[in-house]
Amino acid sequence: MKNNINKIAGLIAFMLLSGNIQAELKWFDSMDVAKKEARKSKKPILVFNTIGDSACDKQESDLTTNESLLTEEFNYVCVKIDQSKKKIKDFNQYPTLQFMSPSGDELLLFRSIGYRKTDEVRFNLRKVLELYTFKEEALPFATLSKKSLGAADKEITIECDMYEDGLAYIKVIDYNDKVYKTIIKEIKKKGKFKVAWDGNDEKMKPVPKGAYLIVFELGSYKDIIQVKVEK
Predict the structure, then answer these.
(1) CA-CA distance, 45 to 37, in Å (whole number)?
(2) Distance between CA atoms of 2 and 44, rounded to whole angstroms?
(3) Could you tell me which residues are beta bridge partners of residue 149?
(4) How far is CA 224 from its chain centroid?
(5) Is the dihedral angle over the CA atoms 182, 185, 191, 194 positive or is it negative?
(6) What fold is seen in the domain 142-229?
(7) How far apart are CA 6 and CA 158, in angstroms?
(8) Which residues 6+ apart lie within 8 Å of 50 measured at CB?
(9) What residues contact 159, with CB distance under 8 A and at least 6 apart?
(10) DSSP code of 108?
(11) Taking the mean position of all CA atoms in its chain, how far away is CA 23?
């Protein structure tokens, strides 16, 4: 009997806790407002794009009722965007879940399309915080002179800061993980260096117009930045 009472008490406590978490966690419905809040709080942004189908409804239920996810989501500024009225042809433009830095740059490594199970979402929620440092004093370890290559542009200059000795590996891929160009792959000493990409592939031929990802592995630091080729 005592064990049953303890179980019931624990269940009630869990329900109360879950209810409090749900009540306190705010989901914004405006990206602009979410970005403003993120810049102020220095928190990354979790974006949930919904088209109102059964998969999105299930994802929303997980995000708003699962205690393990709710606990992790407190480290984020959360925003839900209703995309149900848009005629979406390319779901790469509106993935179900997106992760962004406090400044609004998407962390493309963690985007997902379609329903994702709780364990996977929880893993990504934790991994983003593990890989990225969202603090005002934190400096980016890779910066681009521009994020698009137009007809008048010669190249994109990439400035890197190695925080430790190690492998510097930078490559250009598309959204299907096809490697178009290895910009650098060599051991570097701690410190700054610059490289460039002119929009050509390994055979020195221009890549097709479109969006590409520059993938960085600088020692233990990793990142992905999207660039557009328009020439």
Answers:
(1) 9
(2) 44
(3) 229
(4) 9
(5) negative
(6) Immunoglobulin-like (2.60.40)
(7) 60
(8) 56, 57, 59, 60, 80, 81, 82, 83, 84, 96
(9) 142, 143, 145, 192, 193, 194
(10) G
(11) 26
What b/e readout covers 161-189, taking b as 16+ CB neighbours within 10 angstroms?
ebeeebebbbbbbeeeeeebbebbeeebe
Question: Would you say how long the chain is, in residues?
Answer: 231
d(CA 114, CA 118): 13
Q: Are 144 and 226 in contact (CB under 8 A)?
A: no
pLDDT tens-digit profile, the chain (231 residues): 445 445 444 544 444 444 555 557 889 999 999 999 988 888 899 999 998 889 899 999 999 999 889 999 999 999 999 988 877 665 566 789 999 888 788 876 678 888 999 999 998 898 888 766 554 444 457 889 998 898 889 999 999 988 889 999 999 998 777 899 999 999 999 999 999 999 999 999 999 998 888 888 888 777 778 888 987
- Return all residues near 90 (Cβ < 8 A) that are at least 6 apart: none
Domains of the chain, by residue range, sit at 2-131, 142-229
Strands 179-188 and 166-173: antiparallel
Q: How far apart are CA 178 and CA 212, in angstroms?
A: 10
Identity of the residue numbered 109: L
157 and 145 in contact (C-beta within 8 Å)? Answer: yes
pTM of the model: 0.54
Class of domain 2-131: alpha beta
What does the block give as tokens for 91?
A: 């779901």
Query: Quick one: how many helices (H) and strands (E) in the chain?
Result: 5, 12
